[in-house]
Write a structure and sequence with these properties.
The complex is a heterodimer.
Chain A (H helix, E strand, L loop, with lengths): L8 E2 L5 E2 L2 E12 L2 E12 L3 E5 L6 H8 L7 E6 L2 E2 L5 H6 L2 E3 L12 H7 L9 H6 L2 H20 L15 H14 L4 E5 L7 H18 L2 E6 L2 H7 L2 E6 L2 E6 L1 H5 L2 H8 L5
Chain B lengths: L2 H34 L6 H16 L6 H8 L12 H22 L9 H23 L16 H11 L7 H23 L1 H11 L1 H6 L4 H27 L8 H12 L4 H21 L1 H4 L7 H12 L14
Classes of the chains: A alpha/beta, B mainly alpha.
């Protein structure tokens, strides 16, 4: 067994995992008197697929919101790329290279699929308003580059056929895929997926799993995902954090976690006698 | 050609021109409402304030002169210079941007995630505050605004239509310029929102705040931007109305005419604001012309509101608004 708490390691399928990309140190998050996250630490390595699982209300989404800057923990430190991150607004986190999707899909329903995915490139656009107005120089170059990246991602996720469709008209499964495309368009260093398979049928789940693996494989994107469904997670991820009632009750490879008594209790329930 | 028909055509044309002005005011409402969900009651006062500031700067008036004179016992009123219209317009745009920043920084930043009714109340407060500040800054007398737009009857149209139909149409030059300016303004707004990064961000925010944050858009920046644009639209509306009927405090009441326009067109649609404005403009002029004499006239005062009321009953989302579907 490799030592995973420290540096690099090799996965079961032979992928080389890099250094620590993000580290959460003793995070505690409270809403008034309710403790949503209690003293949790874990890390995410470059190139890894890291899952956070747990029953309903375990604090998984809260953790994702801490990483993406939507919530600010009362205690603890967030380290990203070797530096301690000060308290940041979500848009600043996004500019740092952390993209995310949402559990309840947050797309721009009035815009076409293409426009939605293009908004993912906003952090890569620096041309001034004047140059944009004249459509010269930097603005033109940027727009062409951004379009190329976006088209590549649209091809990759197999949504060419619906490029011009307003997102509001798409079925649920496709919406999820467009949201993934938008997050990918940012070429993130860390991709956060909040229940990417929630509410999907078996076929859609298989598609989504394939895309997640392909994204990781093709672009080398580091992925942290939250899932409810144990089965899917175990197949996808390299390492798993298990949360229950805001505490961390397990951390390790899917196999390690599967055999962890506390995790089994949390999922199946345990009789208190 | 029957004379009645010619009269009616002239009335429709004039109605269209008046409608453009209504649409200009309504446009400011729609911009802010779409991007931030705030119904900005102060839009009319912003138009007034912008017009007051423009006149003040052009005439070289000293801002807050009454206040300064009262405190220090001085007698200054004018700097003694005149600023050319174009430069004054640019300076006024600057003032409106500062106003946008201040509104965001001191009011709405503290009201994020509050009930819409609270935000609405805040804009009512803003309206009266701004009216007071405008008064204090530039004085409350009626001012003449002349930025060099042509005024009075358009002779060419008069002569041409007279030669063609034997009846010369009366079309005001100012209305024609207002229409041209409005078309350019709307074209620029559409180009901005479709083809620039900031425009894309603006549409994104209008659609979904959370998602906008997640792709790296600063809501604060966008809100200042949208209030600035609304301020600019208010300035354009203020110039047109001010040139037409003088800059005076009743200018802020034109905002009330924008309400039926919005009910007709839908609160969230830019084309809606334009079409709504045109329908109200043409509708009230035509109604006055056809039905007015039968009921003793003055129908222009209430026609727009009755039309809006009918729309509220049968199509509450307006012509172009998003349909509200409540899921149970």
């Amino acid at each position: 067994m490799n030592d995973m708490s420290g540096g690099n390691y090799m996965t079961a399928d032979g992928r080389q995992i890099g250094n620590t990309l993000m580290e959460m140190k003793n995070i505690t998050l409270r809403f008034g008197g309710v403790v949503a996250i209690s003293d949790i630490s874990f890390d995410i390595h470059e190139g890894e697929i890291r899952a956070i699982i747990g029953p309903n209300g375990a604090g998984k989404s809260s953790m994702l919101n801490v990483i993406s800057g939507f919530y600010h923990p009362q205690e603890g430190e967030v380290w990203f790329r070797g530096e301690r991150r000060p308290t940041m607004k979500p848009y600043q986190v996004a500019a740092q290279g952390i993209a995310r999707t949402f559990q309840n899909i947050a797309l721009f329903n009035g815009m076409s699929v293409l426009d939605n995915v293009m908004t993912g490139r906003l952090t890569h656009m620096n041309a001034g308003l004047f140059s944009q107005a004249l459509w010269r120089g930097k603005a033109e170059r940027e727009e062409v580059e951004n379009r190329e990246t976006v088209e590549k991602i649209i091809d990759f996720l197999e949504i060419q056929a619906i490029r011009k469709t307003p997102v509001g008209r798409l079925p649920y499964g496709l919406k999820k895929r467009v949201e993934l495309a938008r997050a990918l368009a940012a070429e993130p260093k860390l991709l956060l997926l909040d229940e990417p398979m929630a509410g999907m049928n078996v076929e859609e789940k298989e598609d989504m799993s394939r895309f997640i693996l392909d994204v990781n494989d093709e672009f080398g994107t580091t992925i942290a995902l939250i899932e409810h469904d144990m089965g899917v997670v175990m197949d996808l991820s390299d390492r798993v954090v298990v949360m229950d009632y805001g505490r961390k009750i397990g951390d390790g490879t899917p196999d390690e976690v599967r055999n962890n008594q506390e995790v089994i209790d949390a999922y199946l329930g345990v009789s208190h006698d | 050609m029957p004379e009645q028909f010619l009269f009616a055509t002239e009335v429709v044309l004039n109605g269209l021109m008046a409608g453009v002005l209504y649409a200009l005011v309504a446009l400011g409402f729609v911009l802010i409402y779409k991007a931030s969900g705030i119904f900005n009651y102060a839009q009319g006062v912003m138009a007034l304030f912008a017009a007051l500031t423009l006149v003040g700067i052009m005439d070289g008036q000293v801002p807050f002169s009454h206040l300064i004179n009262a405190i220090f016992g001085t007698e200054i009123h004018h700097f003694g210079w005149h600023v050319p219209a174009l430069l004054a317009i640019l300076l006024t745009i600057g003032v409106m941007v500062v106003l946008a920043w201040a509104v965001q920084r001191f009011i709405f930043r503290h009201l994020v995630n509050q009930e819409p009714i609270l935000l609405f109340m805040a804009t009512i407060g803003l309206a009266y505050f701004l009216e007071g500040v405008g008064d204090l800054m530039w004085g409350s007398d009626i001012k003449k605004l002349d930025v060099g737009l042509p005024q009075g009857i358009n002779d060419w149209i008069d002569v041409t239509t007279f030669e063609a139909f034997g009846y010369g149409f009366f079309i005001d030059n100012l209305d024609i310029s207002a229409t041209i300016v409005a078309i350019i303004l709307v074209g620029a707004l559409i180009a901005f929102s479709q083809y620039t990064k900031q425009g894309r961000a603006l549409r994104a925010v209008a659609d979904d705040h959370q998602a906008a944050l997640s792709v790296g858009i600063s809501l604060n920046f966008i809100w200042i931007l949208v209030w600035s644009i609304a301020g600019f639209v208010a300035l354009v509306a203020g110039i047109m109305w001010g040139a037409k009927s003088g800059v005076q405090f009743s200018l802020s009441l034109i905002a009330l005419k924008a309400l039926p326009v919005l009910m007709l067109g839908g609160f969230t649609s830019i084309p809606g604001a334009i079409v709504g404005g045109l329908i109200i403009g043409v509708g009230e002029k035509l109604f006055e012309f056809l039905i007015g004499p039968m009921v003793g006239g003055a129908t222009e005062n209430w026609f727009a509101y009755v039309l809006a009321l009918i729309f509220l009953v049968f199509r509450p989302q307006g012509l172009f608004g998003e349909k509200i579907i409540e899921r149970v």
